[in-house]
Amino acid sequence: MTAPDRIRIAEPADLPDWAKSASNLADPRLGASPVSASDEFFAPVTRMLDPAPAEFHPGRYDDHGKWMDGWETRRRRGPGHDHCIVRLAGRGTIRGFDIDTSHFTGNYAPAVSIEATCTEREEPGDDATWTEVLPLTALAGNRHHLLECLAGGEWTHLRVHIFPDGGIARLRVYGVFCSAIREAAADALVDLAALTNGARPVAWNDSHFGSVENLLLPGRGVDMGDGWETRRRREPGHDWCIVALAAPGEIERIEIDTAHFKGNFPDRCSVQAACIADGGTPASLVAQSMFWPVLLPESPLSADAEHAFASTVARIGPVTHVRLNIIPDGGVSRLRVWGRVAR
């Protein structure tokens, strides 16, 4: 393969603080999906939701023309504009968006606006009330556009308008899932660390090879890239991350899965926890967490395996945050924190 034909992968966005501790509500791995689109001639909406970075294949064409990694409509020759409707992975509040036009240069959408609605239906009906959450905004080619949400509220669906036509490589919707587990039965054991229940990562010391958010995804990891992995530590200490639980709860079981991590799994792990009444800021939580009570004492881990801890989990009362310590470094695929919601 000659140099001009090499596949190019989009650079990651430099996320602002409002996005760093949020979840992508439009992630299909969590259940998000396209509902409809006015046009998908060159590329379908499903590609716009792909959690992987956008790719550009210089010599790749299909029956409709140049293959593009995103959503792309045909050239509009009349009045109007294109739009699509996306069902979010769950009801949530939105902090902002990444409208990514990576690799779209002469074919990107010149402008975008977004509306949102909240409904129990799979597809909003004609009677749905739509609220503008991102006003009409100009776009540039081949770049990330990190834009804050205009309106508060809880939303389940988005209507994305592009003016008049063109392409968007990726749509990321940064927000927080609204927890439904606070109404769980008193004796129900629920995963308080699941993204879809409302948990979220709030701070970590390193995520060089894999995002902390991956720890909280449903199911087992599909490969080594679908987990949290830190760089090789060359100095004293160990790596860690802090997770805000979906609701205050009394923890009874912890599961740590090292799926696909074989030569790079942590040697040991431990978990600390605390009940933080005001939620705290990421900076304050990092400082406090070093002194939190031990929920799970230092325990050995093994390669590519599920580890369940129950008898060694300390009963320290209701907690709102946990700190996972991996010693000294390495990769973990999933973290499950099973407990009963504290009333």
Q: What is the element layout, followed by pairings?
A:
Elements: E1 8-9, H1 17-20, E2 23-24, E3 33-37, H2 45-48, E4 55-56, E5 61-62, E6 65-66, E7 71-72, E8 82-100, E9 111-117, E10 131-138, E11 144-148, E12 155-163, E13 167-168, E14 170-177, E15 190-191, E16 200-204, E17 228-229, E18 239-257, E19 268-274, H3 282-289, E20 294-300, E21 306-309, E22 319-327, E23 331-332, E24 334-341
Antiparallel strand pairs: 1-4, 2-14, 3-8, 5-6, 7-13, 8-11, 8-12, 8-14, 9-10, 9-12, 15-24, 16-18, 17-23, 18-21, 18-22, 18-24, 19-20, 19-22
Protein name: Probable allantoicase
Organism: Pseudazoarcus pumilus
InterPro entries: Allantoicase, Allantoicase_dom, Galactose-bd-like_sf
List the defining traits of the structure above.
globular; allantoicase activity; eight-stranded antiparallel sheet; Jelly Rolls; mainly beta; Galactose-bd-like_sf; 2 domains; Allantoicase; Allantoicase_dom; purine metabolism
